[in-house]
Amino acid sequence: MATIARLNAGPTVEDIAKTGYAVRLQVARPDGSAYVVAGSSSGSPLTARSLTIADLQPLVNAGIISSPKDVLSQSSDPLLASCDYTLAEKPAALPYVQAAEQAGFAHGLLKPSDLSNLGLRTKRSPSELPEPPA
């Protein structure tokens, strides 16, 4: 499990570090906003304890982050639960995969040609994939 949150305008990842947390991942959006996955500053990212929304409340209170959300590594829905991160054997997951693809295309984060490089295997041929906006 991880917790992702919006990095508020003004504060930086250095501000997060000053409060005793570590930024494990930062995602910048084309509109200038950013999201961060914050974790414990102690230990390796592979062995550090996962943080919850409640653990990040000091960062929310300080105005550094907002809208923290827990991200689970496994779905609680048996139709979506899979050990295959591509969800290739779960047809019920295809709408979620397609929504993620569309969001990536719409925000310029990926192109249809990137999908095979990411290891995404959908049940569609490349000709069925939409072209990203110009």
**N-to-C SSE string, H for helix and E for strand:** EHEEHEHH
> Mind telling me the C-alpha Rg?
17 Å
Overall geometric form: globular
Kindly name the structural category: alpha+beta
Biggest sheet, open or closed, and with what strands and sense?
A: 4 strands, antiparallel
- How many E-type strands? 4
What percentage of the residues does DSSP assign to strands (E)? 15-25%
Low-confidence stretches: none
Count of individual domains: 2
Q: What would the average pLDDT be, to the nearest integer?
A: 76
- What distance lies between the first and last C-alpha atoms, to the nearest angstrom? 35 Å
Q: In percent, how helical is the residue content?
A: 10-25%
Q: How large is the count of helical segments?
A: 4
Query: Numbering strands along the chain, what is their spatial order in the largest sheet?
Result: 2-3-1-4
List the helices and strands and how they pair.
Blueprint: E1 2-7, H1 13-18, E2 21-28, E3 34-40, H2 57-61, E4 65-71, H3 94-106, H4 114-118
Antiparallel strand pairs: 1-3, 1-4, 2-3
